[in-house]
Amino acid sequence: MKQSVQRYSVKILSHEIIDKKVYYIINVYNMEGGEPKETRKRYSELESMHQKILDWINIFKIRIQNLNFPKKKLLFHTNQSEESIIKRRGELQQYFNQVLAYSELQCLDVIEEMLPKDIVNQKQFGQQTDRKWQEIQQLKESYLAKHGDSIFSLPQKKNGNSNKQQYIFKFEDHIIIDDCIVYTIEVNDTITQKRWKFNQRYQDLRDYHKQLKNLRFDFPLPHLPEKKSLSPKEILDLRERKSQLEYYLNRLFGYQLIVENDIMVFFIAKSQLDGNEIGCRSKGNSQNTLDNSSIQSKTQTTIEQIDDEKRINRKITC
């Protein structure tokens, strides 16, 4: 995909060190004028942002050149050297100028919140939205090519006065990965009758919730249960926790404005790409849901192994 005409320019000319942590001061300028937007981010936050950008590229099959995000130093911390910090500033500045050269990436929430807000062009915003739906269509075609005559589910607009909820979620199994609970969630599309399972951490649900809060709907979002840290013994029975999260997700998808929002379209698309269709007639051998998932781990603990760890003072995030 060709780069668009550069509309934004990024400069990272300074930084702050607070509690031995480096905060890069990022200024984004609109080439047409106006005041720049200033954002302060740590390297870890920018690294997380980069991962979301890569997810966006992979899900919507955006064809762009490799993005050169500066790698983490292995032998020493960057904040131990002023020279290293200044070098890192230059690398990050180059990276963000590369990112903002693509209008398709400017739609992503983590990028959009960095852009100057004073001269938003509604016409261009509409064009970006159309482009995004074209990319979702490309993803659909790619999925169907791999899964034969399966159905690719996307949120659909309601017809007439129908109150039928399109997506119903059910929390089923769970497993411990890197001291976090990973839930297996079954999705039932009541319109297309497609069902699939995918894996999700609580933190992922919380990230989606934060993105929705930033949109400021004219109605309150359903309450997301608070993060919990439990002992291995306590997580043996998570029925109540699963019931709370299941209730939240089903209430969330009861709002049609939320269902049709790009954030939730991304959520539904990614869950199918990472998950496994129930009754799938896809080409090739079927894989375990967790094998397909983008969730990766160095360690994996089954429920049966918890008894051996009761003596250890561990806390599991769920």
Structural topology:
Layout: E1 8-18, E2 21-30, E3 37-41, H1 43-59, H2 82-99, H3 103-106, H4 109-112, H5 122-146, E4 167-177, E5 180-189, E6 195-201, H6 202-214, E7 229-230, H7 239-252, H8 256-259, H9 262-274, E8 276-277, H10 289-292, E9 300-301, E10 316-317
Antiparallel strand pairs: 1-2, 2-3, 4-5, 4-9, 5-6, 6-8, 7-10
GO molecular function: phosphatidylinositol binding
Organism: Paramecium octaurelia
InterPro entries: PX_dom
Structure write-up:
With 318 residues, the protein is an alpha+beta fold. The chain has ten helices and ten strands. Strand 4 and strand 5 form a beta hairpin. Strands 8-6-5-4-9 form a five-stranded antiparallel sheet.
Assign an overall shape.
globular
Major sheet: size, sense and barrel closure?
A: 5 strands, antiparallel
Count of helical regions:
10
Q: Give the amount of beta strand, in percent.
A: 15-25%
Report the order of strands and helices: EEEHHHHHEEEHEHHHEHEE
| Quaternary state of the chains | single chain
State the helicity in percent bands.
25-40%
How far is the N terminus from the C terminus?
A: 40 Å
Query: What is the gyration radius calculated from CA atoms?
Result: 22 Å
Quickly give the structural class.
alpha+beta
Order of strands, widest sheet: 8-6-5-4-9
Mean pLDDT: 79
The poorly predicted ranges are 119-130, 281-287, 297-307
Instruction: Report the count of strand segments.
Output: 10
